[in-house]
Design goal:
Blueprint: E1 11-12, H1 15-46, H2 60-92, H3 98-121, H4 138-168, H5 176-207, H6 216-250, H7 257-270, H8 287-321, H9 342-365, H10 367-373, H11 377-384, H12 387-407, H13 414-440, H14 450-453, H15 466-494, E2 504-505, H16 527-550
Antiparallel strand pairs: 1-2
The protein binds heme-as (HAS).
Heme-as is lined by residues 129, 231, 234-235, 277-278, 297, 300-301, 304-305, 307-308, 311-312, 315, 331, 351, 354-355, 358, 361-362, 364-365, 370, 374, 379, 382-383, 386-387, 391.
Length: 571
């Protein structure tokens, strides 16, 4: 058995980059307070506990937009860039280029603030998917575009570091964490191109009133061309954490560096040509092409199945090293509640949640089953166990840890910190099944009719939705308590004096249980995988995009006289 050198030495971050990374971490966590609050209000509203979706006079769709945009777009993009900055500096052992770093963080912050204004004023109640005919104030689209461009600049700033590293280390494959972050950002770059086309050439001119008509099927297709790979842009930084730091935290070794690299490369190939699985129910596309996207969607589950086996094998090794003897007792030997290894707790809770998030994704992907659950609460149940599971918990745990390293302040309230992910998991395991079961009973995914379907005097009353609505509210309450405790840990940490020098990054990598790949291996090269990705995108999207283009232009002005119809609850 071969091992690679374990990098334990710290990397000293330059003061400017340190300050910018602190902004990239702290700003989204502050906004998250608003995002989580509105999530809780949604659940209380659905459970019939409150009249409107919040106490602040913010309506249902406005609150849902704030919840989705902050949690799913702002938090994930900022964290992806911050974690990418940490990974690139640490593993390539080079400082970031200041010009790129200032421009990237500056644009992202500016974009977020610009988009926040119309959202807070109620001028952009378009949800995180911003489908036309819902129309937002132009500032919303412009702000979102700046956020994305800022993240592109972060990627551009890493490329010179990569080239220098490869020149200086011609006999070594890219460090696994670098490969993982690079694939995440290549997927992000590729999939934000259709989004840029939709926003720049369709939504902004339309919201400025320069054009009256907008092709709705085309806008939706371009959105999902972006929208599904987006979820892997969220997931892959978490996978980088699992394949490196988490295994180390568990005390294990990475079972297979081959499998780990193949996982990231398979995501590069398969995560984009699958977007039509969000549009199975929409007319205008041949069933054949929906079938092609369905098949590829099953394909994109394969790297996650591989991850399940590789990480489980690595954890089993950790348990055996700690004294386990039997077939399953290795689980009991893992550091579940070790307050000095909180990242293990954040990671393992995320993985356990993802088992169910992943399996429900397979249900969604199945063309015929999708007809039953599309646009029902089942979908919200699914995605809270994916983005709200491994992704969210990895972000929470790592944000705190990186902040502690960048400021030299020790994490305080360690006992509470290690309990946060399990409490979140408990809440989610009440919330998501309730949403999903409600979905199977016909409960809609989004609804501003929450109170009426719980009211026996209403024509929309549904007695069988009462238990699922209440359980959704209880689950959300437990999750909110977990988040409040997490914020308490932040406040205690912020107020602690620094005990170590600031800016010393230490990102752990595990040892490998099997030999590392050689630079000649296909797994050490990105280009062939990128070519296959292009070919698959072309094959899978050529005809659907032409079909969307051929649909008649569809002008639906969004005015008070022409409100968007409210979906009627099934009786
Ligand atoms: Fe999804 C809708 C299909 C993964 C997020 N998804 C959504 C939406 C979101 C979302 C946000 O095909 C709603 C979008 C909207 O606004 O309309 N999804 C899938 C499939 C996967 C999948 C096949 N989704 C994700 C991930 C997300 C995410 C990841 C966020 C990060 N999804 C769909 C479909 C729809 C959809 C349809 C549209 C539905 C509709 O009609 O609208 C797969 O990638 C999942 C593969 C995952 C696995 C799980 C592997 C398990 C692991 C844990 C192992 C545990 C260990 C612990 C090792 C196969 C890795 C062991 C230790 C011990 C101690 C035991």
């Amino acid at each position: 058995m071969d091992t690679i050198a374990v990098k334990r030495e710290e990397f000293q971050v330059a003061p400017l980059s340190r300050a910018l990374m602190i902004v990239e971490i702290v700003l989204p966590i502050v906004l998250l307070v608003l995002g989580i609050y509105h999530g809780f209000m949604q659940a209380l509203y659905r459970a019939g506990v409150i009249q409107s979706s919040s106490f602040l006079g913010i309506g249902y769709y406005q609150g849902l937009t704030l919840h989705g945009v902050i949690n799913a777009v702002v938090l994930t993009t900022f964290f992806g860039v911050a974690f990418g900055n940490a990974v690139m500096q640490y593993y390539l052992r080079q400082p970031l280029i200041p010009g790129f770093h200032v421009a990237s963080t500056g644009l992202m912050v500016m974009g977020t603030l610009i988009a926040a204004v119309p959202m807070l004023l109620g001028l952009a109640d378009v949800l995180y998917t911003f489908y036309p005919p819902l129309r937002a104030h132009p500032a919303f689209y412009i702000g979102a575009a700046l956020l994305v461009v800022g993240s592109w600049i972060a990627l551009a700033g890493w490329l010179p570091l990569l080239r220098r590293w490869q020149k200086e280390n011609p006999t070594q494959p890219l460090p696994l964490a670098v490969l993982g972050m690079l694939t995440a950002f290549l997927i992000w770059f590729l999939c934000t191109i259709p989004l840029a086309i939709e926003v720049l050439f369709m939504l902004i001119p339309w919201s400025l009133g320069w054009v009256e008509a907008i092709n709705i099927p085309l806008a939706r297709t371009l959105f999902w061309f972006f929208g599904h790979p987006l979820v892997y842009f969220w997931l892959l930084p978490a996978y980088v954490f699992y394949y490196t730091w988490f295994i180390k935290e568990a005390g294990g070794k990475l079972y297979s560096p081959y499998a780990a690299r193949l996982v990231f490369l398979l995501f590069l190939v398969l995560s984009i040509p699958v977007g039509l699985h969000h549009q199975y129910t929409e007319p205008g596309f041949d069933r054949f092409w929906k079938g092609v996207h369905a098949l590829l969607t099953f394909g994109v589950a394969i790297p996650s199945f591989m991850t399940a086996f590789t990480i489980a094998a690595s954890l089993e090794y950790a348990g055996v090293k700690r004294g386990a003897k039997g077939l399953f007792d290795w689980m009991a030997y893992l550091p579940w509640m070790d307050a000095n290894r909180p990242l293990f707790a954040y990671g393992i809770a995320g993985l356990l949640i993802f088992v169910f998030g992943g399996l429900t994704g397979i249900v969604n992907a199945s063309y015929n089953l999708n007809q039953t659950i599309h646009n029902t609460g089942f979908i919200s149940g699914h995605f809270h166990m994916t983005v709200g599971g491994p992704v969210f918990l990895a972000i929470l745990g790592l944000s705190l840890e990186l902040f502690s390293q960048l400021t030299g302040k020790p994490i305080r309230l360690r006992g509470i910190n290690v309990a946060v992910p399990y409490l979140w998991m408990l809440g989610l395991f009440i919330f998501s099944p309730a949403m999903m079961y409600g979905g199977l009973l016909g409960q809609p995914r989004r609804t501003n009719m929450g109170l009426s379907y719980l009211d026996p005097d209403s024509p929309h009353f549904r007695a069988d939705w009462i238990p699922t609505s209440y359980l959704t509210g209880i689950g959300a309450a437990v999750m909110t308590v977990a988040f409040i405790l997490y914020i308490a840990v932040w406040i205690a940490t912020l107020s602690a004096p620094a005990t170590k020098p600031a800016g010393q990054l230490v990102l752990h990598a595990p040892e490998n249980l099997h030999p590392e790949i050689s630079t000649q291996s296909i797994l050490a090269r990105l280009r062939p995988w990128l070519v296959v990705a292009f070919v698959l995108i072309l094959i899978s999207y050529w005809v659907p995009l032409r079909q969307a283009l051929q649909t008649p232009q569809n002008a639906v002005p969004y005015t008070p006289d022409n409100p968007v119809p409210v979906v009627q609850a099934r009786k």
